[in-house]
Amino acid sequence: MRILFLGDLMGRSGRTAVIEKLPELKKLLKLDFTIVNGENAASGFGITSKIATQVLTAGADVISGGNHSFDQREIMSHMNTGQILRPINFPDGTPGKGFNLFDGPRGKKVLVINAMARVFMNPLDCPFRAIDTVLKQYRLGGSIGAIIIDFHGEATSEKMAMGHYMDGRVSLVVGTHSHVPTADCQILPNGTAYQTDAGMCGDYDSVIGMKKEEPISRFLTKMNKERYSPADGEATICGTYVETNDQTGLATRIEPLRLGPRLMEHIPQV
């Protein structure tokens, strides 16, 4: 199975680039399944119903989230559709789903799990145990052709720990939230593909996707002069490309995807 995971959509620049380029990428990479993290798509804070529809129409099979999942209140009514996920370890009673099964190729199912880390983040239930509970119901192999975990978090150590903890049980553990693509794409010893952070889809002439002036000013003065606003230059699309074994669901290949003007481009050859 050929899978593409795209990192956090950042504002108009990032979402426009993905909406425009995703149909072409699906053909170029011969993709079977596509996940997009959309939690910064609406001016950097959350996602609206309109944007979600545009991303799904462009070819995403599912949109994952993070700490900004509910910043746009209107999206709550769409959370129960199953195509927009929020972190599984949010408190009981939170609208929406933290995981869902989707149709994949050749009669296989794809399980996508969205979880949020805790180090330097909001106090939430344990993401490790929350994912364990799901994996007791669904095991990789057989009818489950792939299991993908979007682990939305700050600390690289926590993301790496999750990767090793899940090694051999899922197809891919990929981090989001830091908006910087890491250079550690690898297949772990027991067959799980891993990358600490997929990076963002947005303008990299910025401070993690925001216009530079206000963040720099806050670091210099410790004062808030104005609101953060997304950088609006040409976006670079960043993500993770994975191929899996049809029998086991484990990874056989992982590569980064970088497409755009600011970072060194890398497009997997298929």
Q: Largest beta sheet, briefly?
A: 6 strands, mixed
Question: What would you call the shape?
Answer: globular
Strand order of the largest sheet: 4-5-6-7-9-8
**Number of distinct helices:** 5
Secondary-structure element sequence? EHEHEEEHEHEEEHEE
Q: Mean pLDDT across all residues, rounded?
A: 96
**Uncertain stretches:** none
Q: Which percent bin holds the helix content?
A: 10-25%
Distance between the termini: 12 Å
Structural class assignment: alpha/beta
* Beta strand %: 15-25%
What would you say this structure looks like, in words?
- The protein starts with a strand and ends in an 11-residue tail after the last strand.
- It contains five helices and eleven strands; from the N terminus they run βαβαβββαβαβββαββ.
- The model has no long low-confidence stretch (mean pLDDT 96).
- The strands form two sheets. A six-stranded mixed beta sheet has the order 4-5-6-7-9-8, covered by helices on one side.
- By secondary structure, the protein is α/β, with parallel strands linked by helices.
In brief, what are we looking at here?
The chain has 270 residues and is an alpha/beta fold. The protein has five helices and eleven strands; from the N terminus they run βαβαβββαβαβββαββ. The protein is globular.
Reconstruct the topology from this structure.
Layout: E1 2-6, H1 11-28, E2 33-37, H2 49-58, E3 62-64, E4 99-103, E5 109-116, H3 127-137, E6 144-152, H4 156-166, E7 172-176, E8 186-187, E9 193-195, H5 213-221, E10 237-244, E11 251-259
Parallel strand pairs: 1-2, 2-3, 5-6, 6-7, 7-9
Antiparallel strand pairs: 1-10, 4-5, 8-9, 10-11
Helix pairs in contact: 1-2
